[in-house]
Design goal:
63% strand, 337 residues, Porin, 1 helix, 16-stranded antiparallel β-barrel, Outer membrane protein OmpU, porin activity, mainly beta, Porin_dom_sf, 20 strands, Gram_neg_porin_domain
Length: 337
């Protein structure tokens, strides 16, 4: 990370003021992607068969590059409270985006003190904050290992909100607690709120091993989700995690209710990192979605990492006559600055 101090925006050690600064960091990717991630379905009318839907393969290898610039501002009050913000400028030249297309993302502001930390913006809810994902280490330039049909990033009900999460965190010793409130439909009259709570505990064993536990719950008027996770860092480069969650949506019948289980492992030795994860959703009826992801990373030093990723998805929805088996892969270099 490179640190830049702007005289026009930073408070500089003057009487009555605590110092504040702004830091800028960045990341970039270049490489190739492939598989069936960009397949699409076309529809036409046949005089005999009526409406016909066909899958069109688009699995040729394609170029990929993107970058992200992150800006963080921090400050401190005379009374010792810290405050700040975070925002990211993202650009993607993936095949699905227009060249040079960019957007702002992950905007948050926070204030922190002895009471804990209060964060507002596009941030995780309490459920996600305290659960452990099964994608444990490394990555890929196209996120193949986390975009398969069986992966669950523990977002819970966050996707139903309007990306305005208010979350409170407090950590004491090895324990941590979080509570969150998110609006839907920009808080308009009649819209629902999403409430969440989460707790975590990390146990540091004498052997050098760390065991972590997480428990989370989110609810709104017509849906709720709970999840548990367990994580182990064995102190020798090997990590493993297991999580389980259950989603209940009241106003859509039972078809959208789902149980999910995920497991992940990772191993790091010197510059090499290998990781794998598997997940499966069981929906009511004979409907399920599962998948797995693999990554291999080699750290070149200086912030550059060679990354390979692979993801495979298997979706079988008997109720809707959907049967999909697809994969994706990518190879390239990820850079951080």
């Amino acid at each position: 990370m490179k640190k830049v101090l702007f005289a026009t925006t930073a408070l500089v050690a003057t009487a009555g003021y605590a110092a504040a600064d702004i830091t800028i960091s960045g990341s970039a990717e270049m490489g190739v992607v492939g598989g069936e991630r960009y397949d699409y379905v076309t529809e036409y009318q046949d005089d005999t068969l009526g409406t016909v839907r066909e899958k069109v393969s688009n699995d040729d290898i394609q170029f990929h590059n993107d970058f992200t610039i992150a800006v963080d501002g921090t400050g401190e009050t005379d009374g010792g409270l810290t405050f700040g913000f975070h925002v990211e400028l993202e650009e993607s030249n993936s095949p699905a985006r227009i060249n040079g297309d960019s957007s702002y993302d992950n905007e948050t502001v926070f204030i922190s003190g002895a009471f804990g930390t209060l964060t507002l913006g596009e941030t995780d809810g309490a459920y996600d904050k305290r659960l452990k994902e099964v994608a444990l280490a490394g990555g890929s330039i196209a996120d193949d290992e986390t975009e398969h049909a069986g992966f669950n990033g523990n977002a819970g009900l966050d996707p139903y909100g309007d990306e305005q999460n208010l979350r409170y965190d407090y950590d004491f010793g090895n324990f941590g607690i979080s509570a969150s409130l998110a609006q839907t439909d920009d808080g308009r009259k009649g819209s629902d709120e999403i409430w969440g709570v989460g707790v975590s505990y990390d146990a540091n064993l004498a052997s050098g091993m760390t065991i972590g536990f997480g428990l989370g719950y989110q609810t709104t008027d017509d849906a709720d989700v709970y999840g548990v996770s367990i994580y182990g860092d064995f102190g020798n480069g090997f990590e493993a995690a297991l999580n389980y969650s259950s989603l209940d949506i009241d106003d859509t019948g039972d078809d959208d209710d789902a149980d999910h289980i995920g497991i992940g492992v990772a191993y790091t030795m010197d510059a090499l990192t290998l990781a794998a994860n598997y997940g499966k959703y069981d929906f009511n009826g004979d409907n399920e979605a599962e998948g797995f992801g693999l990554i291999a990373n080699y750290d070149l030093g200086g912030g550059a990492v060679v990354q390979f990723g692979y993801g495979n998805s298997d979706v079988d929805f008997d109720d809707a006559d959907i049967d999909v088996d697809a994969d994706s892969y990518s190879l390239g270099i990820a850079m951080s600055f």
